[in-house]
Fold this sequence. Notes:
The protein has helices at 3-14, 29-36, 55-61, 73-85, 92-104, 109-120, 126-129; strands spanning 20-23, 47-50. By secondary structure, it is mainly α.
Amino acid sequence: MKDDELADHLYKNLKGRRYLIVMDDLWDKETWEDLRRLFPDDKNGSRVLFTSRMKNVAMEISRAIIEPPLLPPSESWNLLEQKVFKKERCPRELEDIGKQIAENCKGLPLLVVLIAGILSNMEKKESLWL
Length: 130
C-alpha cells in the first residue's frame, strides 16, 4: 500500500473501536503532528502512549508526563549482576569493576540491561571488563 492508503486503512480500522497505541521514542513534535490524524478521537477511552528521551518534546505534546525515577547505584548494580550472572553471584574479582560499570549507567535501567547483555557475552575477566 502507498502511505496515504495505509493511513486511510488504519484510520478506518480504528474508527469506533477502543484502542491503545504505544509509540516508542518520539524525537520531535512534527512527527506526532503527522501521525495524530491517523488516530480517531471517538471519546471512548482510546489512548496513544508515547515515550521520548527528550523532555522538551514530551512537554510540547502532552500535559501528562511521567518520568520514571533513576535507579540508585545499588539497584543498578543488582540489576547488572542479575542480568550478567543469572542466579549466580558475581566473582569477587569482577565486583568492583562491575559496580563502576553500573554506576556509569547513571541510573538508566535500559542502559544497565544493554551493558549487561554485552558483558554476559564476554569472557568474565577483569581486564576485558576494564
